[in-house]
Amino acid sequence: MRKSKASRIESLGEALSVRGVLHLREAADLLGVSEMTVRRDIAAHGERFAYLGGHIVNAADLGTGGGAGSYVFADEADSHAKAKREACAHALGLVSPGETIFIDCGTTLFHLAELIPPDMPLTVVCYSLNVADPLRAKRNVRLVLLGGVYQPGSDSFSSDDSLESLGRIGLDAAFVSAGGIHAERGVSCSHFHEVAYKKRAMGAASRRYLVADTSKTGRIRPAFFAVLSEFDALVTEDGVTAGEGAEIPRKSA
């Protein structure tokens, strides 16, 4: 028997409360309707659900701003900028001269790239323009910019070839950003293409650092990529919390 619209909405809400994220195809199978019907249901209940990159999430899980939880790069760059820079100042203390490091994309780690002293010898691997831009002027930094198809939502690139290249580079440390850090649902970001880069860098690095201001705590973004215990330390504006299973700081008021 075909479910009513009200029944579909409740079933979808219940499924998301358990799983956090559903692919559109999974939702259609669950509800016994077409993908188009699911998309119409979501569009009619934008205050409750968000559709991002083929996946459905609870709108409330995405935090505030940007309509239905959307990530707008230019707006995010101005959000909590002071806290992001302070977090990156702490992260800089984890970098040693002569190392090869990975700096993730996003608006937080741009500050780490800026803060690297011009006389510090480093090899830095990145895949975003905003991170590469301040590095290219530093005479002692050897910059490795991974290319591919430009992704304007995060000012980054993606391609299978660049992922393979990343996997062949030995990294001393990976500095990884996140849009959400949740005690039960793990570490997540807004763009699905970023997941492979984050995971590949984490797998190739001797040390893994999660760098995020405390506004990200308690939030969930649609693309899950790690649990907190996979990192050697969590770095926020409050400092470095080291060790496996580092506690998630309380969200700022």
Strand-helix topology:
Blueprint: H1 5-19, E1 21-23, H2 24-31, H3 35-44, E2 49-52, E3 55-58, H4 66-69, H5 73-78, H6 81-92, E4 100-103, H7 110-115, E5 122-126, H8 129-135, E6 141-145, E7 149-151, E8 156-158, H9 160-167, E9 171-176, E10 180-182, E11 186-189, H10 192-204, E12 205-211, E13 223-226, E14 233-236, E15 239-242
Parallel strand pairs: 4-5, 4-9, 5-6, 9-12, 12-14
Antiparallel strand pairs: 1-3, 2-3, 7-8, 10-11, 11-13, 14-15
Helix pairs in contact: 2-3
Notable traits:
253 residues, alpha/beta, Arc Repressor Mutant, subunit A, Rossmann fold, 2 domains, 7-stranded mixed β-sheet, 10 helices, 35% helix
Brief sketch in words of this structure:
With 253 residues, this protein is of the alpha/beta class. It has helices at residues 5-19, 24-31, 35-44, 66-69, 73-78, 81-92, 110-115, 129-135, 160-167, 192-204; strands spanning 21-23, 49-52, 55-58, 100-103, 122-126, 141-145, 149-151, 156-158, 171-176, 180-182, 186-189, 205-211, 223-226, 233-236, 239-242.
